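Dear colleague,

Following up on yesterday's call, I've attached the two folding results inline so they're easy to grep. Please treat them as preliminary; we haven't cross-checked anything against experimental data yet. The first protein's sequence and structure tokens come first.
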Amino acid sequence: MADQDRTESATPKKREEARKRGQVAKSMELSSSLVFLGVVFVLHMTMASSAKYLMEYMSFGLGIPHLTPLDIPEVYHIAMRFLILLFQVVGPLFIGAIIIGIIVNMTQTGFLFSMQALAPDFNKLNPLKGVQRFLSARGLVETLKAVLKLFLIGYIAWNSIYQNYPTMLSVIRMDIPTLLSFIGNLVYQIALKVGLYLFILAAADYAWQRYSFEKSIRMTKEEVKQELKQSEGNPQVRARIRAKMRQIARRRMMESVPKADVVITNPTHFAVALEYKSESMKAPIVSAKGADLIAKRIREIAEENHVPIVQNPTLARTIWKTVDIGREIPSDLYAAVAEVLAYVYRINKRYQRR
């Protein structure tokens, strides 16, 4: 399907399905640049202690051949000593890189574990597919990023060495601690500049990845309609259900008309049935109402069940427009409704006397 047809933003369901497949907006460049910067800072802060442990490691290693004899416990002791010294040197860097990597990835994608992403994809082994990926927009962007990174690293290293070239000529006259300090500071400056420039490149890459991801999961109007049908049901079915519910509600409304105390009419267009029980109601309630054919049916049921019908066009129209079924009439209509009920009660007493 042509990309120009995919004009709609992805729905939450489509995003959730993409997430289950491991498809999220994520920049590996951002993760690697921040991990690199973190390692540089950790290395700078632990430089003194790492140099100390490294000297111990080298001294201990150079002294091993003079140890005689070497039995199994001694070999075990030497191996453990090497491992401890090695962890003291590279442990902070390793732990720092893991923690920073986890934090950066969780910030980008949240907690995400997808078995579908781990499934083998044999299309990646197809040379034709590989050429297509390389010549695609994503492949060209990846190639451009690699070239930019090489250019930046090379330029920053050359510029730093060029600026410190006069000092480097005099290193042969420096003592060992001063020489190591100079080299360490130079390497730190180069690494810090490289990390900062890589971070800027990674930020641009993250923006591109988000744009590319949003574009890849866009949907057509037809796909949105189909998803809406699947999630909420077919519109025709929903319409039939609503019609059935209206029929049920109308039947229940008609069943309440025989219990009404009075039906107020327009006389032909509107009909409102009122019920009032003084011992349980604060005010009369609207038990049924309708217009045209429904109003006609309410009048017919009222006549069949000897419910009084009173013609009051203004009151009938007002109640029909302003009061819902099952609600009490508002206080501003108390007087008008009271007159109607009083009239009905007088008629009922006359009928009972007769």
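Below is the second protein, in the same order (sequence, then structure):
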Amino acid sequence: MSEALTDESVKVVPRAKESIDSSIEEVQGAKIFFNWKTLIPLVSLGFILFLHNVIPTNGAYRVKELPYYSYLLYALLGLYGFFAVLAVFIPRRRISLAYKSWFLGLAFLLLGAYDLITIKFNLIPSLYFPAPERIVDVFIKDCFFLLRCLAYSLRLLLSGFFLGAFVGVVTGTLIGWSQRWNYWIMPFIRIVGPIPSTAWIPIALVVFLRATDAALFLIALGVWFPTTILTSSGILNVRKTYFEVSSTLGASNLRNVLSIALPAAAPNIFAGLFNGTSASFLTLMAAEMIGCKFGIGWYINWQRETLAYSSVYAALIVIAVTFSLLINLQFRVRNKVLSWQKGTIRW
């Protein structure tokens, strides 16, 4: 009987050990991790909110006080607090939030410093440097009008961008592929291309009947030049042996261009599009400030003439956020199209 009990105990002990191990794994899987860095932005927000409520408004500040800045800080506290709690349970979110924490904390502190030197200490002219609450007030009152101006500018920007990108890729392909096209087009590009597109504004306003058409042409021109140069450079750098092998297998020139030249030159094409995007932003703002009767650039110029600098700053924030989103979208498209480059080229 003792031998039977021993055998049973041998069988039971491994089962108990397995159950204990599984329970330990379950506890470890449900373990909550916390990174103290995720609290840095919260501390910054709480600190600047405390200073804003404790320090009185300077007596020389004659503009009517508004509560919108405090509302913004409370909203940011609630929003970031939600993400901080979410980061406790989601490792990926926790790592991202901890990585950005120092930058966000410093950004919030700079916002608080701007509030102090404007409405609290009145160290700079309030006419040209409005307090944060005045800028937030513009978003509340002129929100829909700002969105209309932004939609008008985006329509103009995207139309000119895609036109310039298409013509730039076609021109760059012709230059990089054919010596004959290179002979006739390249000298023209070397003369006209380096001239900033904004320098053509006076001529464009005379040539085109509408200022919108002139702005469209100038934006396309700003995108066309870098796209053309980098596309042709990418095609010229493709190994000739690829085309020789393809032609030996019976591929036509058009097939070589579409299947070999353009895919191989894709990194250069995207680099040209990125450069053209920056040029298109500059051209759009300049064109709208000078000739167009609507748009975000027109809005900035109009508010500047009426000395409404709080509206000017609000429009600048809209531009920064919108164009940053467009650039990030371009990077996502590039990462998707050129996924085969990851691991070979550091972006």
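For the second protein, one point worth flagging: Confidence is low (pLDDT under 50) at residues 1-30.

Best wishes,
A.L.
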